[in-house]
Amino acid sequence: MEGTRTPREPLRFAVLGPVLAWRGRAALDTGSPQQRAVLAALLLRGGHTATVGELVDGLWGSGPPATALNALRTYAFRLRRSFGAEGAGVLVSDSGGYAIRTGPAGPGPAGSGPVVELDLDRARALAEEGHRARRSGNPVRARELLAEALAVWRGESLAGLPGPYAETQRTRLEEWRLSLTETRLELDLEVGSHAEAVSELTALTTAHPLRERLRELLMLALYRSGRQTEALAVYADTRHLLAEELGVGPRPELSGLHHRILNADPALTTAAGPARKTTAFPEGFIRPAQLPADTAHFTGRTAHVTEIRDLLAAGPGGSPAVPAVTGTGGVGKTTLAVHAAHSVRHRFPDGQLYADLQGTGPEPAEPETVLGWFLRALGVPGATVPEGVDERSALLRSTLDGRRVLILLDNARDAAQVRPLLPGTGGCAVLVTSRHRMTGLAGARIVDLDVMGPGEGLSLFTRIVGAERVEAERDAATDVVEACGFLPLAIRIAASRLAARRTWTVPLLARKLRDERRRLDELRAGDLAVTATFELGYGQLEPGQARAFRLLGPADGPDISLAAAAAVLDLGPDATEELLESLVDTSLLESAAPGRYRYHDLVRLYARACAERDEQPPAGREAALSRLLDFYLATAARAYALARPGDRLVAHLAPTKVPGLAFEDGGEAVDWLTTEAACILSCVRLQATGGGSPASLARAADLLLAAKDLVEAGISGSAYIHAAEAVLAAARAAGDAQAEGRACIALAHAHRFTGQLEEADEYAHRSLLLVGATDDPVLIRCYAANQLGIIAIHQRRYRDAEAHLRRALDHFRADGNRVGEASALSNLSRAHVGLDDAARAVELAEEALAVYRSVGGSWRLANALYSLGLALAEDGRADEGLDRLAEALGIFRESRQRWWEGITLYRTAEVHLIAGRAEEAVQPAELALSILRGLRSWWQLAGVLTVLARALDLIGQAERARACRQEARAIRDRQGPAAERLRTAPDSDGPPGAGSA
Question: What is the pLDDT of residues 770-799, one digit of tens each?
Fold first, then answer.
């Protein structure tokens, strides 16, 4: 019956690549190249008829064979037979010629013909939809659609087909493909993906050297990536090429761009695409609504609110409005800013962004991190958010261009922190709060905020406590407000406490404030008024709350997790959460995020004072900090063990009384280590600088070793070094040789990864001098020898490296440390590459790989693959080496090891050069450059720039190559004398040991 007919599988054809056909998923035989050329000629006519004469001319040109007509008939017959039962309905004879009906249905009544699909039709539809999205002001969606259209190609159009018609159509389709690529690259720059575009544009300008539009895009991408010298070098290369090949100069557009780059035209830093409408927010984008809740009891500040509102509500202009509210701590900057922002949010229909920049804390928020938050909040997929503050800042400006978004930047440290977070054009607005006057922020309008007047202060107090209680005791209420110094934070805390104690009276509160024992000398001026208010709030806490308030204060991180707080308080997670939430209710603690807590900076200082004064016996404070150290050490050790199953370093760490967290997998462990980095290093510094007992010093040194992946992953390198230096100084003062030795190992590791090889070598040798005075010499012997071997590789002292690494191998084997053994073998492989013994290097790397696999792999397996790839390349087996490097790269990326990802890309580019594939070396070198710039890994960056320069020279971009060499030389010059041992010939690839395990 008609109603039960089985749906027919579509016939699908492809011409954007080799000419192919399928019935559903089953490939069909399309015959000889000539037969496929006939099929292509019919498919490209869009359902129109091709006469026999046209087909003969298209296939054979002006000299067809006598059998041409019979051959055409044979080809048509075979194609129909290949298409199956419906072949006659697809390839039809018509008016002395042939036609193929493409589209959703073939000939006949609606729905009665075969379903025929052509990849070219899909590419056209996607491209047209992309162009429409761009015209409507949606560059992100346009970019996605054009990328999807380009992905339809599977190679060169009409690949392998003979005849003049196929050649003409191949040229046309490939030109269209290149035009689409240019448009997609324009969109890449428009949305801020400059660094990603550079490598592709470099390859395209090599393949199409006379196509000036590609040269323009490459210059712009380089300029926006902060590489002005290279951008100008591209122009010089182009001018020379055009004069030599065509006898002409660059077109006006290219010359104009050159002039604008020379003059650092500010307009070049933002996209100049079509104006976008506010209502045309890209699909997948979110209209963020991140403003914190408005304060229920907001009072007064009328003139300030009006001023800020007028500034924020101004219509679009040449630059964004930037009111900056400044004043002392606790004066109400955030409360005012949030209230004013809510009053104008209707004027910013595309959303509101918010970030606490933590400017008064020891670790202010990095602009790069905040930019990542904002971009993801605006809907930019996390995988496409670039690395580096410049790239992210440019992408934010592009994303916000043409929209009306309000950004509230709370608690800024200085103008330098704020500057990368600003939109590039008017329409958006930025509201900043800071203790510091933003005099260095161009375009900022300073809004000075002082303490409240007596009337405003009393009104705020009244709104919180209640008019009935205040009116009955107005004089006492006035005394309370005066005692608070009219500071809004102090008034709010005092009033909240009174409101929560119905049995208290206002005169009772006033008498407490008059008591000088309750009101410190600092109450007399400025921020000092807050201290008295904190004293009042603290005195009203229940014993359990007060203990929690005191003990959490000395913890020195920017915030603290619920699990860490539970360790400090020696309580279960539920009881801890209940206590912390009650402190949040009293405004003595803030909830930074679900499961994380922090003090206002002034409250933290007060909490520490309370701990020193009130925690009895004093050993309770030391015990709390010891439990926190135990928690971090135990958890970091578990994370380390997951990353290196079989590594016995954890067996040599001090035992802990707190169990720490357990992880489901390595990804969760990496997330924890990354999130807690600042807190871990703050805990180490606190133990070393007197916050803990002498017995805690050894565990602080062990925590550095357990958390050393922070350095290797490119996270907190300088903070790690500072913490290790503090432990080293404390260990020397205490005469603790074991802690001193382990701190030296940590410093050797950290300095090696930051390129300070002389310092790394000194610390590694110093650790060995302490071996005899330690209770556990094995750990120092193992890791010091391994570090010395890696350092020697970096410095090209390969015989020394071999000797050190042989000792490390013996020590690791004696300790039963299989992962350490694999590491030493992998590094030995790199040393033998340097000794020109490639065959032995391959054997050692394969042995390391086998050991890693025998203990369960983990991402450390990639280290052996990396070494094997380099050894194979040195052995003349470049393709095998590249395969191993590609395996390593995939593992490093999956494990979020950004430093290793950058180094592996660097070496991939190097191997391509060894194999004589300069064009293929450019892209991995560019990607490595982007990653290592973001990590500020300067000494490896110099090597990458040199490799890139060699590749560019070989593909004819001499001026740009010269610019890369100049930058590499400048970087090495900045490194000073320590870089001399890394210098080689001008065309050197840099230190071959840069990626030792």
Answer: 988 887 788 899 999 999 999 999 999 999
Using one digit for the tens of pLDDT, what is the confidence trace for 835-858? 999 999 999 999 999 999 998 767
What was the pLDDT predicted at 156? 92
d(CA 517, CA 959): 74
DSSP 8-state secondary structure symbol assigned to residue 297 = T
Return the bridge partners of 11, or none: 23, 116
Angle at CA of residue 112, ends 106 and 115, nearest 5° = 40
E-strand stretches of 488-647: 560-561, 590-593, 596-598
Triad 863, 869, 872: Cα angle to 5°: 140
pTM over 0.70: no
CB 511 within 8 A of CB 545: no
912: left (phi over 0), alpha (psi -120 to 50) or beta: alpha
Contact status, residue 657 vs residue 666, Cβ threshold 8 Å: no
Q: How many CA atoms lie within 13 A of 77 on its CB side?
A: 6
- 752: closest CA among 995, 454, 422? 995
b/e 777-812 (16+ beta carbons within 10 angstroms → b): bbbbbbbbbbbbbbbbbbbebbebbbbbbebbbebb
**Which DSSP category does 289 fall into?**
B
Alpha carbons within 13 A on the beta-carbon side of 75: 25
pLDDT at 307 over 60: yes
Q: Residue 35, Cβ neighbours under 10 Å: how many?
A: 21
The more confidently predicted of residues 921 and 84 is: 921
At residue 239, what is the residue type?
R
Per-residue pLDDT tens digits for 529-552: 456 556 656 776 889 999 999 999
Residues composing the chain: 997
Q: Would strands 20-23 and 91-94 be described as parallel, antiparallel, or unpaired? A: unpaired
pLDDT tens-place string over residues 959-993: 999 999 998 888 888 766 555 554 432 222 333 34
What is the DSSP secondary-structure string of 307-375?
Answer: HHHHHHTPPP-SS-BEEEEE--TTSSHHHHHHHHHHHHGGG-TT-EEEEE--TTSSSPPPHHHHHHHHH
- Give dist(CA 598, CA 573) in Å, integer: 17
